[in-house]
Structure formats: C-alpha cells, structure tokens
Design a protein that fits this description.
With 365 residues, the protein is α+β, with helices and mostly antiparallel strands. Helices cover 37% and strands 33% of the residues. The longest helix is centred in the last third of the chain and has 26 residues. The chain is globular and about 70 Å long.
Length: 365
C-alpha cells in the first residue's frame, strides 16, 4: 500500500580512502559505533528500513508527529548524540593511525524529504520503494558542504518544509538548490546542526534544585519518549492538560518555542503566567510558574525511557517571593493548595493518557 510521510537519510562523512588494512578496520569500527548510536535514537514513531548499503534510512508517516518543531528537534538531537559519541570514541582511543586521527573531523549529514512510498516484504524483510525514495537517496550526493561551508547539516527539501509547515522555523537556514541530470532541480533549506548544538551546549542548564524540592510526581506513559515529549509540549494539548479556556505563547524565536517564551493561560477568571527558563528536547524543560500572591514556583518536567514506556517526573521547587516576608506569605498560602496541585497533575496526566490512546489508535487505522 502506498503511504505518505517523511523520508530521512543519514550519512557520515569526513573519512578519506585508506590503503592500510588496519586503518580501514579502525575506520569501519568507528563508523559502526557512530551509526549504532544514531540507529538507537531513531525509535518509534520512526521506522528504520534496510536499503542496500545505505547506512540509515528511516520513514515517519504523516500524522505521527504533532509539531514541526518536534521533527526539527529530532534531527538536531541526532547530531547532539553523534557529537557526544564521537567525543567519547576520541577520548578512549590512544591509536595514532590516520583513521583515528580523523575522528574529530567526521561530520553528519541528514536529508529530510516528504513524499509517497511503498513498503514491500522481500524475503521477510520490509523494504521501501518509490520515486521519492530515489530522490531522498540521490540528494545525499550534493554540493552543500562545498557551496555553504557547512559540514554537518540537515537538508529539508521544499516538499518536506511545505508538508511540515516549517514557516518561520526556516529563518536562519540557507536556501540551497541541487540539479541532477536524472531528477531535475530540487530546492530546500540547509540547517546548520553544529551551530544549534554549540548554542545549546553553551547555554546554562536550569532545573529544580533537589535541595529546594517542594514535591515530586511521577507518571508512566505507554508510548515512546519522542511522542510523549510531543504531546506534553504541543500548545493545544498543553491547554487541554491544564484544562484552560485559553493558552497562548509569546516570545518565540524564529517560530520556535524555547527559553524566554512567556506562556499564559486563562481558566475562568484566573490568569496564570509562566516563563520557560530551560528547554532540552526529549530530556527536560523547566518553567517558572506564577502562583498566588505573585509568588514564583520553579517546575522541571523530566522525561526518561523505561523498558516499555516513558516516565515523566514533575519536580516542583519551593515557592519564592520578592523578599523574606513575601516568601513566607506565599508558602503559607500555597500550603493549603498542595493537595489541589497534586490532584490537578493527576487529572492532567489522565487527559494526556486518553488523548494519546485515542489519537495514536486513530493514526494506525
């Protein structure tokens, strides 16, 4: 059956040709470790398919991800894990052969295309076929590094960008076009993964200090981590989770929700403000919540994988005020609402659980 979705191709570049058998063996082992890390991260809703000798080829069906930003952050996270593994390999080697000396210059390139494809069973193995598959594969052979100077990148074709409704998310990306004798012209946007990684790594991590923990609440969701993150951060599901009449976000940077964004919700006559102070996709996010008497409570939402589910841990820090007296008043007022907050979190958890159960079931029919 023909299906519609996103096609992702990943390749690692930077190695020259080796004539020495030992150097070639080292290069193959290094690449095997790096590709293994990437494959381990591309979990549901992504599906990895075998395609000849290509390192990684994955697909994502339309509707399996709620937000364009989540898809964008997926490829950014692949690069983060690639760099982390590359540095680990480099630190653990004492070999001075050419292959090992070149570890630090290895780069990751990703092609993201949207189109149709057919999943066929060949000798008991699922394989993808279709013209758009050929396009995505051919786009690996490009002149992006030569023309832009960007070594590690994600190239979103116009078809992918339009289907994802990237909009402002492409701001900061470089427009690029490839022309092939056999396919014609394909344009798209080059996303510099190294710049995004460096910016994230240099930013300060903010989370609830365990010494100031007020209370904690855990909940398990029977879905992959990427899907749970998507549901917890998508604005409309966020509004439903807190049962607000209105939920708005201001301060996006190039169309992205992240650090510095102010969120406000309206529930009846009550208006609540909160500010995102840290945003680490698929790991955690931290917000500063406005609470009664104009106090502030820091909250970190942490995600972690378990054997068959995703655990979400909500950490709430001790409330603070403008000064000591104000802080005491805020704490006194909040002491009477602690049980209500816990019940609200449990209710929100149930809402997300039911939404995921219904919507994911519908997407598979």
């Amino acid at each position: 059956m023909r299906q519609q979705g996103y096609l992702l191709v990943a390749d690692i570049t930077g190695y020259a040709e080796f004539s020495d058998a030992e150097e070639l063996a080292h290069a193959e082992n290094i690449l095997r470790e790096l590709f293994g890390t990437l494959i381990g991260q591309l979990k549901s809703p992504w599906e990895i398919h075998e395609l000849g000798a290509d390192p990684i080829f994955a697909c994502l069906l339309d509707g399996d991800i709620l937000q364009a930003q989540t898809l964008l952050e997926t490829v950014e996270n692949l690069y983060r894990l690639f760099v982390k593994k590359r540095e680990q390999i480099l630190q653990n080697t004492t070999c001075s052969c050419k292959a090992c000396e070149q570890i630090s210059v290895l780069a990751l390139k990703l092609i993201v295309h949207h189109g149709s494809f057919i999943v066929n069973q060949v000798a008991g193995v699922e394989r993808l076929t279709g013209e758009d598959l050929v396009v995505a594969h051919t786009l690996l052979r490009n002149r992006i590094a030569e023309t832009t100077g960007i070594e590690s990148y994600a190239f979103f074709t116009e078809a992918a960008a339009n289907s994802m409704s990237l909009g402002e998310l492409v701001h900061g990306m470089k427009i690029h076009t490839e022309i092939y004798e056999e396919l014609g012209q394909y344009g798209g946007f080059v996303h510099d993964l190294h710049i995004i990684w460096k910016r994230t790594e240099e930013s300060r991590r903010v989370y609830v200090d365990m010494d100031r923990l007020y209370f904690k609440f855990d909940s398990d969701f029977p879905a992959p981590l990427a899907i749970v993150w998507d549901y917890l951060t998508e604005p409309e599901r966020w509004r439903q989770r807190i049962r607000a009449d209105y939920f708005g976000i201001k301060g996006k940077s190039q169309g992205r929700v992240g650090v510095g964004c102010d969120q406000h919700s309206v529930k009846g006559k009550r208006v609540q403000m909160q500010t995102i102070v840290d945003w680490r996709p698929f790991d955690y996010l931290t917000i500063d919540l406005e609470i009664p008497l104009k106090g502030v409570m820091r909250q970190t939402t942490q995600l972690s994988e378990t054997e068959d589910s995703t655990r979400v841990s909500w950490y709430f820090g001790k409330p603070t005020g403008r000064n000591l007296m104000h802080t005491l008043l805020v704490k006194f007022r909040l002491a009477f609402a602690k049980g209500k907050i816990r019940r609200s979190i449990k209710k929100g958890r149930q809402i997300i659980y039911e939404l995921m159960e219904t919507e994911l079931a519908e997407s598979q029919t």
